[in-house]
Amino acid sequence: MESLLQKIPGVSILISNVIVKEFPSISLFVSNLNSDENLLIKTVFTDEKGNKIKLKENIIERIKTVFISTDSDKKIVQ
Please, which domain of life does this record's source organism belong to (predicted)? Predict the structure, then answer.
């Protein structure tokens, strides 16, 4: 997934500490793989049991790299 994202000119999406603490498990799904220019990543938040949590707004962004900010460091999601 990282190699696909590196091809995409775009913005980075920063997920805040608050969201990471509230939703510790985050899954990423890549869609629209036929067009690099329109590569989308959808973040799906789940609880500790693996149940999907519905957000008020879907977080779908055209991005190059996804950074998740934690208390200790910033990780590149692969």
Answer: Eukaryota
